[in-house]
Design brief:
single chain; alpha+beta; 3 helices; 20% strand
């Protein structure tokens, strides 16, 4: 996964998850690393920590771990990340799903774009068609 020049704060520290500008392919690779247990990118222990609910988002009402929103769909655990303007990464380990959506990066972070981009699963744990 290649990260283009990443913004730093005035002290020279990277901003963390902000402004990473990952490509859809890089997002898929990151999601797959998490879905398959780390793949040498992150440890399985970190995945467990990151996917443990720590709080609840006042905006989505979904649980939030370390960098991941957490919810259930069709009885399956879903971890997802949101980017500015509607970029999304979903990981559903039990269903073997890693999915990415991109959209207009000029939209506000809490735009309707995020509200419309929600992974819906059938009762069998497959992605459901968009309405």
């Amino acid at each position: 996964i290649r990260i283009e020049p990443w913004l730093r704060d005035p002290q020279g520290r990277y901003f963390g998850g902000n402004d990473m500008a990952l490509t859809p392919d890089a997002l898929i690779r990151l999601g797959e690393a998490y879905r398959t247990g780390g793949g040498g990118v992150v440890s399985a222990g970190w995945i467990d920590e990151a996917w443990t609910p720590r709080t609840r988002s006042p905006f989505s009402r979904d649980d939030y771990g370390y960098g991941w929103f957490l919810r259930e769909a069709a009885g399956l655990r879903v971890a997802y990340g949101r980017g500015y303007g509607g970029q999304m990464l979903w990981v559903v380990p039990e269903a073997g799903i890693t999915a990415v959506a991109i959209s207009d990066p000029t939209l506000p972070a809490r735009s309707e774009g995020h509200a419309r981009l929600r992974l819906t699963l059938t009762p069998e744990g497959r992605p459901a068609p968009s309405p």
